[in-house]
Write a structure and sequence with these properties.
Layout (H helix, E strand, L loop, with lengths): L2 E5 L2 E3 L5 E8 L8 E6 L6 E6 L6 E3 L7 E6 L4 E6 L8 E7 L17 E2 L3 E5 L2
């Protein structure tokens, strides 16, 4: 497993942008597929986006496609989630997660596929 720490959340207005960061420590995220999930009270943890360990392949939930972009910088041991055109329904606690090295990732991947999790960062979109 690898330790992950998210940052970048906050309170924004509809239409604004935020960039979430997820920094790994202890071990590298190199060769690990990573993803972002979000959780709101009363709902299951929801898949948002995922990126392959090579960074070549990216997957997005339909609800964020065209607005969110996942990326990774293995030199900085960091994964990012750029969120544009934010909507009130994007309000949630956002978590980053990593899978075991050289494993694969797919669209709509289950949280149970990931073995490392951060503590989450709150994103609130409200006017």
């Amino acid at each position: 497993q690898v330790q992950l720490a998210e940052s970048g959340g906050g309170l924004v207005q509809p239409g604004d942008s935020l960039r979430l960061s997820c920094v790994a420590s202890g071990r590298t995220i190199n060769s690990r597929p990573t993803g972002w999930f979000r959780h709101t009270p009363g709902k299951d943890r929801e898949f948002v986006a995922a990126i392959s360990w090579s960074g070549v392949t990216k997957y997005y939930a339909d609800s964020v496609k065209g607005r969110f972009t996942i990326s990774r910088d293995d030199v900085k041991n960091t994964v990012y989630l750029q969120m544009n055109s934010l909507k009130p329904e994007d309000t949630a606690v956002y978590f980053c997660a990593a899978k075991p090295p050289t494993s694969t990732v797919r669209a709509g991947t289950s949280p149970s596929d990931f073995d490392s999790w951060g503590q989450g960062t709150q994103v609130t979109v409200s006017s």
